[in-house]
Structures
1.
Amino acid sequence: MILIIADTFRYDCATGNFVVKGKAAKARNLEKLRREGASFDRAYTGSFPTVPNRHDVLSGRYTFTYSDWQPLPPNEPTLPEMLRKAGYVSAMVVDTPHILKDGFHYDRGFNAWQWIRGQENDRYRTDPTEVELPCRPEKLRSVQTTVQHMRNNAMRVREGDWIPAKTAMAAIDWLRGNAMNRPFFLYVDFFDPHEPWDPPREYVDAYDADWNGEEVTYPMYGPCDYLTRGELEHCRAMYAGEATLVDAWIGRVLDEVGSLGLYDDTAIIFTSDHGFYLGEHGLIGKSIIMGDFYGSAPLYEEVAHIPLFVRLPDRLRQGRSTTIGELAQPPDTTATILDLAGLECSRYGVQGKSLIPYVMGEGDQPLRDFAVSTPPIIHRQSAGARATITTRKWSLILAPAGSSSDAEKVEFTMMVDGVRRVLRPFGRVNSELYDLGIDPMQGSDVLRENAETARGLHEKFIKLLKELGTAEDHVRPWLNCRGLQ
């Protein structure tokens, strides 16, 4: 089994619907994987963002109910530890720094792991000492992180020197030495297309070759009105170029699977942790960061909706592409892998559900009625956190009413990059409701005229929190949400 996660890979970018200057972003290898397997086109992130998502995947649990951006708890069984019971050898190849640096230990349980260094603020290099910023510093989320990333990657010459290429080649090398004649689990974690966006020049030129202005490679999160229209469109081009680069090197991994003759008995899963706003809803980023302060942004479709492609081994495939409309979530990936290994999810406290019956056309009832996407809920209203409840028709964004004491309490977070910031709500923090059937871009809030529907979804959310064993102190703030009275 091979699990590939690409950080910040938007659903529309993985399915050919992300457009820059009239050109659809290219992800040919993922499109091929999608055609050869099953595409869960209503998959949604669970715990948000990067580190909480990996916690969901490696534990099979909805960890937003009790955990934060924090090290992997030492008392929780991890997916590779579960698989070891069935005789699997496991390996992690990762360039996403936040799950390994600062003692986070998400490598726990793997028989082998390899960290490809140099992404974002990874303290990897101290030279070159002089670095020229790609744009004016006030447009950057962090000058220090931008400089660190540029130092880390200053010596690149050919495409193979880029981090996605190094990660893919490390995965290929592991497959060549380890994947024959024994059960294996290979977990490959690409940080790209997460910013800073810096793919080889030709990848950006494929979408915006005429641009000659500043390149805001690591934009400040929040309202995007500090960018000109051209700068924002070029951000979209850099993002698309980064995604295409990742797709190209995922293709190399998939080609090697074919060359080694592994497709007959190897399952491949591709997914992401979340998307990214690139002008939609007036935002850029996935939250709001102003200096030393961090605030949550609503999790609209562009962030909450994620790609999820499952290609079963050839001996199990039905021989045709399948699009599945079930509401799938990250813990389901864990349950699916355990199911393929013949292991019982309940034995390990996994809260997801196996996707195999739906891939095989044998699912006789809905996977679930709604999906929940949310930052950790253990900080109450300190950052204006909202939970998104998604059904086949509705997207409800729930904002707890909070209290004056909550607003005055000073709390901190390490989201979204391991830098300690004060939690603080920004802008309007209200509940919202959207009819995805007629308003997929979520441009018209219809909460007022559909308050009863919203209250019904809210009740289901509270019931789920209790079923998941959420502490009463963490449930209580959500009992009274704005706009539902």
2.
Amino acid sequence: MSSVIKVNACVYSRKGYGRQVNTNSFYMNGKFISEQHIDNVQASIENRGREYLFAVSDNMICQYPERDINISILKELSKYHEKITVNEGDIRSKIDELETRVNDTQRLITSVFEVNKESDEDSIPNIDFAGLLLSEGRLVALSNGQGRIYMMRDGRFRPLAADASRAKREIDNLMKEQEEDADISLPGDENKGSVVVSDIYSLKEEDSFILLSRGLYDALGEEKIEDLLALRSDSTYIAYRLIDEAMKRKFEGDLTALVVQVEKVINPQGGLARKSPVKSQPRQSKQRMQSRVDRLNKVPAVTYKYNKRKTKKIQGNLYSLIVIVSVLVLFGVLFFMLKSLVDTGKNNIPSPPATSETVEPTVTPETTPTPTPTPTPTPTPTPPAVQTHVVKRGDSMSSIARTYYGDISLVDALCKYNNISNPDTIVLGQELKIPPKEELLAQ
């Protein structure tokens, strides 16, 4: 009887910057499936079960309705998942069948594209796949192309089904070929493809996994992905942060992040899986345990590297400095307020009226005509000077118009004279020109 696994998972998928369509697709344990025609999608699950299958792929859907061609890795995964859920079998056989289905789908899509490409300039699209299978309390990962999957366990970040695993398997196969006759072909070798399968691991509580698309990896890089996966948060937040950080970089590749977290692994006997391996220790005698206790009791108390008195002194000086700065700022504000009031009073003092002088006629000494008085010219009244008003606290255009003109209906004319578009935007200390009422109305 296999173990019961409790997981929570979340996936975010967004089309890349400037892209017309999202070519990524994902499979989340059969509950949520995203086809390529969905550009932006988010989904999450929290479930308890024995079998889980997660996958992220790129360009693994090929459709030509006019030729009755419809190839999709999601359909293959759905059929495979239903089969392993109904039929029992060992995990090795499940892995082999999943690897075969992914390889066959890749070959079919590649061949269809080669036959139907319209020009020689067309190139085969990048076909990527990353899959995770949780079964019987164990896990295995599969990748193809640039599909990537990582695991975070006990604070360690490691890739699964990566290029290093591929290179190791290629070396092992090369060594086997050298030992055997090259003319002999083993049954099943013709179905081998480019899918890389990881080793089989036992599941542990608090394991975290992330399945990435090529675009998301190119945008963030492995170090940034490791930092975000190490966050002590739920899968929804981690997936959101991954996509959000990648969107800021404006990469053209499509972005998909599927985060899976293992909450509990319940063994068939009813016990919980250990979070971390604990080595068994031999029993110790009472005398040995007592000696250890005595040694621990003799350990000196913990000493601090900092001086508490010095810390309090620094805090007191800091508080004093804050009080002095606050007092200086307060005095500065009062000074500017008083200065503003004094300037306003000076500007409001009316200027004395201008005096006119009578021009006396001048008589030249050479001639002695009878002096005729010249009419005294009528002095032209000097218009009152334009006053200046400095805005102080509590002033408004209405109160200023009432003060100088006794009429608040002149607010708009006064604003126009001072080139003010909004009467509510005057600020403290602003200088306003106050012309005579006749000049204000004549503008």
